[in-house]
Amino acid sequence: MEHPIFSLSTKPDTRARLYEHNGVSVEVKPSSDGLATVHDRDILIFCISQIIRGMNDGKAPQQVVRFQASDLLKATNRMLTGRGYDLLKAAMERLAGTRISTNITTGGEEVFETFGLIERARIVRETREGRMQEVEIKLSDWVFNAIKAQEVLTLSRDYFRLRKPLERRIYELARKHCGRQREWRIGLETLQKKCGSGSSLREFRRLVTAIADEDQKHGHMPDYEIRFDNETDILTVRSRGTICPDAVTDTVSIPQLDSDVYDMAREAAPGWDVRYIESEWRAWATEAPRNPEMAFLGFCRKWYEKRGRP
Asked: Which pTM does this prediction carry?
């Protein structure tokens, strides 16, 4: 959820994109059908939920997932009509056709190859009217590695009731970065980058403002309160305290640091409480670093370069 892999457009999006942030690069290339969309992601979410449920029951995770098409449509708040099945087919084609090259680490493995979000999708049986009944999907190695390492987050069921792609993307970022914290803030330009929006900054500001205003009036965003300050261009996300306590953890497991590193941290960020900086670093981290001490010291240096003395 950290990176803008999925398109926000409701029309075929055939532009390739390159996203780079904090040393991570993600290049996404569409097929002739266009990039996989935020709504196409529902299929991945459903497949992941099936695998995680099996793992919680003591079953070994399987890369191939078979399910009833109607179960997916119901779970993701989609139409159970012929149109709904047609849209599901198109979504599977976009997921299989979208190719990704990245250096993101999943399950302790760095992937530097091009791959699809799913390897293949197969309709196992159809009714006489042509509607699919059973669907079989093989997830990509990259997605499957993340599931086995439990590098996934639970989402509110009300997520599927959000119809605007940007609303869903803002919720995903809130879930990833705010988690169970009380509050999280992000600037408009960084938010646009993380959303992968192709709109002008002015138009993006208008869209974000409309979502925040609607949430202030109706509280329609799940789990989080969304507010936007047009004067500072800052989006503020506040937890509603509804995240399930037994949800998959949203924090990265980083081992305790060597005690000697704190003296070096004080030199890197003079005047600051390095334990406070450490808590901010742990909340910011999206994956466990190979060398936690060096990663923490690098974070302290950047912290001081940006803020100076307190």
From this structure: 0.71
